[in-house]
Amino acid sequence: MSEFTPTVPAKVLPPVTVRDLPEPPRHAWRIIGPGLVGAGVGLASGEFILWPYIASQVGLIFIWGALVGIITQWFLNMEIERYTLATGETALTGFSRMWRHWGLVFVLMALASNLWPGWVTTSATMVGYLTGAAEDSVRWIAIGMLLVIALALTMAPVIYVALERVIFVKIALVLILIVVAVVFAITAESWVQLGRGLTVGARFPVPPLEFAVLMGAIAYAGAGGGQNLCQSNWIRDKGFGMGQYVPRLVSPVTGHEEAASSTGFQFAPTKANLARWREWWRFANVEQGATFALVSFVTIALMSMLAYSTVFGRPGLANSIEFLRVEGETLQSTVAPWFGILFWVIGALALFASAMGIVDYSSRLASDTIKTVYLRDKPITVNRVYFLVVWAMTLVGITILLLGFDQPLILLVLSASFAAVMMFVYSILLIILNRRALPAAIRVRSYRLAALVWSVLFFGTLTVLTVVQQAQKLFG
Predict the structure, then answer these.
(1) How would residue 158 be classed by pLDDT, with cut points 50, 70 and 90?
(2) Which string of DSSP letters, residue by residue, matches 388-439?
């Protein structure tokens, strides 16, 4: 092992330490979770608004697009995980090894996309549907939710464990809603149309929907933007691969902070290490496929079927939070009053959990990059940087709500544009990173390399379309 020279670049950050790859888990079910967290955080407006809205306008002929988007993101997530499994470093740290400021670029784009508290406001609006609260009250409900999220993320002894539990509850609630919907609301015709949307009836429905809307729906089916990058952080906290050598992110108030190197490790490609690698890689692929990919597609498909069964063809539906009000009222009138209430209750809780996940992943990306690249030799821990970022995002969100702003146009433009740009750029960087920084035996190759090339082409096209479209909105 002493003869092995690490392949991870060391011009920008200190070299990695050579250590053996830890043994794979004997009981794999105990470390299942990061894929479910990724799916759970991603189950937000796309699954509750965008895809059901598409189904309400054109039926289920485009459901194949969700499958394409989720498969593309599965490949992306696995290449993000590949680097972390092999080094214990996040993908953003790997990018920063190629150019010092790559991590900061992605952090700033993620923060710009998430500064407006959209998900928590949507959740608060659904609470308003349930309680009949005045529109002005929604703002105060949202502020209360932001404070609860910040307190939960900074007081939990192990932050990932707290987030995982919230997301597991969310997924369970959504599955309950789906089961009830299958029994009481989803029609036999929608099952037929689902099959057609995945086979002979599949087509690209332009018009009546904008091409960019449909492309965006494909791109962000499941997750999207900076959330995919956080798979690195989540699998590391769960102890995947070389991530076992890195302490988990804990509360600086209630947790036990450990001193740790801000850079990672690498294993020599010996016969024993490569055998362990194959087991880890197989497990990680199955975990992502059986959790992130499966849960994301099932949720999108069945929520779209629910919308098709209840509001398909209804004129004047908006692709916004108003869609959820109309769908809930329709469920109350066509199925039973209790079903509409159940729909809003689970929707409010689900979107609240997504808001918590978004604050977490944005703060994780920021704190990891700031500590590793810019404060590496400073006494402040990554846990305290995380604490500061969480509360900074919370205070910015509260300020926006207190000032009475709806989402500012420029922030809406940045949010829509940055997600596409991020995925385009990091698809390219993943090819470079996982070809050059890893030993030949575990580099990305063959059909997985082709999948990354497809991702570059797809998100590159989406980037151009989004930027042109948003520029037209800004400048006429």
Answers:
(1) confident
(2) HHHHHHHHHHHHHHHTT----HHHHHHHHHHHHHHHHHHHHHHHHHHHHSS-
Going by the DSSP 8-state scheme, the letter that residue 15 receives in this structure is P
**Residue showing tokens 């009222």:** 329
Residue 281: enclosing H or E segment and its boundaries? Answer: helix 271-287
- What CA dihedral angle connects 469, 432, 13 and 161, to 10 degrees? 70
Structure tokens at 383: 């846990």
Report whether 349 contacts 177 (CB < 8 A). Answer: no
Cβ–Cβ under 8 Å, residues 66 and 52: no
| 257 vs 202: which has the higher pLDDT | 202
Q: Which amino acid is at 208?
A: P
Helix runs in 292-336, H state only: 294-311, 321-334
What pLDDT shows up at residue 279? 95
Nearest to 469, CA basis, from 212, 216, 217, 218: 212
For residue 265, CA distances in Å to 13, 34, 256, 467 come to 12, 21, 23, 39
- Burial class from Cβ neighbours inside 10 Å (0-12, 13-18, 19+) for residue 188 reads exposed
Phi and psi torsions of 250, nearest 5°: -125, 165
* Pair of tokens at residue 177: 């809603």
Closest CA to 142 of 464, 441, 397: 397
What is the spatial distance between Cα 215 and Cα 338, in angstroms, rounded to a whole number? 35
First-residue to last-residue Cα distance in the chain = 62
Length of the chain, please? 476
Determine the pLDDT at residue 262.
63
DSSP secondary structure code for residue 10 in this structure: -
Q: Which of 278, 276, 301, 350 is nearest to 123 (CA)?
A: 350
Q: Which helix (H) or strand (E) holds 175?
A: helix 159-184
**CB-CB neighbours of 314 under 10 Å:** 13
199: three-class secondary structure by DSSP:
coil
Region of 18 on the Ramachandran plot (φ > 0 left; ψ -120 to 50 alpha; else beta): beta
pLDDT digit string (tens) for 44-57? Answer: 767 788 889 889 88
Do 59 and 211 contact (CB within 8 A), yes or no? no
Residues 6 or more apart whose CB falls under 8 angstroms from that of 251 comprise 154, 155, 156, 157, 158, 159, 383, 387
**Which DSSP letter does residue 440 get?**
G
- The radius of gyration of the chain from alpha carbons, rounded to an integer in Å, stands at 22
